[in-house]
Design goal:
With about 130 residues, the chain is of the alpha+beta class. The protein has a single domain, classed as Ribosomal protein L22/L17 (Ribosomal Protein L22, Chain A), CATH 3.90.470. It has four helices and five strands; from the N terminus they run αβαααββββ. The chain has a three-stranded antiparallel β-sheet with strand order 1-5-2. A two-stranded antiparallel ribbon has the order 3-4. α3 packs antiparallel against α4. The longest helix has 20 residues. The protein starts with a helix and ends with a strand.
Amino acid sequence: MATRQRQKTEARVAAKDTRPHAVARYVRISPSKVRIVLNIIRGKKYDEAMAIVKNIPNIASEYIIKVLQSAGANAENNLGLSKSDLFVAEAFADGGPSLKRYTPGSHGRAKPILKRTSHITIILDTAK
């Protein structure tokens, strides 16, 4: 059994994605609001994507700037890549756990409020 576990571990390590990436988890903003900005920068060069996000008047852009800068720093420091050669290969926002709150409704009822959270992931790649 231990041999099979070792084989699985070796296969997982060999198949690991080595592209620079960054993830922000449990960000207190709805994923649909984040996806609006991510759809704009997907496929753009790193410098161009950073300029676009800095000039978009969207509340999600401040979170995306941090994730994009982190992914660029990971590429420079961990993999020795230049930021000028990078582009945004993948960018997506998954839903995190929702905070459940309630507000009073008519006839003594309680109306639910879902305060959504996001997991923002940006994966960079070198321009070929």
